[in-house]
């Protein structure tokens, strides 16, 4: 199976929302409660993505990973820091989300997606980028460390009735791995 990485567009919203829900269910089954995972909805995610893409933001980049037959099996979006919580990262830019389905993990696609966004952010003049990851999500943390990220502050919050802890990762764009 060949996986193509390309720019995402508004017509991809349904495919991205499906991958988002499936990605959570596959990747977070060991960290989040069955109730929290069962409560996820493609329609809700579609509305979230519609809102996110409604206002053009040229400094942000959305990339999708697509199979030969057009199924979206992964995506990433990153851009300028958005809100107060994100500002805790202490970086100018952030990765808003990155998800891959289980069947395409560990083939270098996550790295391609991250570098695609890093390159764009570097061209936009950003010098640092951060993200939040679940503290228990050791696979993703090893991935960020392999790409040169360093762990920083932690924050806990209520995610659909479950208290979870996230840890921040920071990347210096000039020295990306
Ligand atoms: C985290 C994620 C994006 C990584 O993408 P990927 O395509 O699987 O990773 P890559 O193949 O590009 O890996 C690059 C390097 O990162 C490290 N790495 C990646 N996944 C790892 C894992 N599960 N455990 C340990 N190291 C890992 C390795 O050093 C790897 O190089 P190698 O395969 O040559 O050893 C992907 O697994 C994913 O989408 N996970 C579920 C969703 C998620 O947790 N998202 C993060 C939300 S904050």
Automatic annotation (TrEMBL):
This is GNAT family N-acetyltransferase. PROSITE patterns: GNAT. Pfam families: Acetyltransf_1 (PF00583). Signal peptide: none annotated. Keywords: Acyltransferase, Transferase. InterPro entries: Acyl_CoA_acyltransferase (IPR016181), Bact_Acetyltransf (IPR050832), GNAT_dom (IPR000182). Residues 3-176 form the N-acetyltransferase domain.
């Amino acid at each position: 199976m060949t996986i193509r990485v390309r720019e995402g567009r508004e017509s991809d919203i349904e495919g991205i929302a499906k991958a988002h829900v499936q990605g959570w269910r596959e990747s977070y089954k060991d960290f989040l409660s069955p109730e929290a995972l069962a409560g996820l909805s493609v329609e809700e995610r579609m509305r979230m993505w519609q809102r996110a893409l409604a206002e053009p933001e040229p400094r942000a980049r959305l990339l999708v990973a697509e199979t030969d037959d057009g199924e979206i099996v992964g995506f990433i979006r990153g851009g300028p820091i958005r809100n107060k919580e994100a500002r805790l990262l202490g970086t100018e830019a952030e990765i808003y989300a990155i998800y891959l389905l289980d069947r395409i993990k560990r083939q270098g696609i996550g790295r391609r997606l991250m570098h695609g966004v890093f390159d764009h952010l570097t061209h936009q003049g950003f010098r640092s980028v951060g993200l939040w990851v679940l503290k228990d999500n050791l696979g993703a943390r090893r991935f960020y460390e392999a790409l040169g990220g360093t762990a920083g502050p932690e924050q806990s919050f209520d995610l659909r009735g479950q208290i979870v802890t996230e840890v921040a990762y920071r990347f210096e764009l000039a020295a990306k791995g």
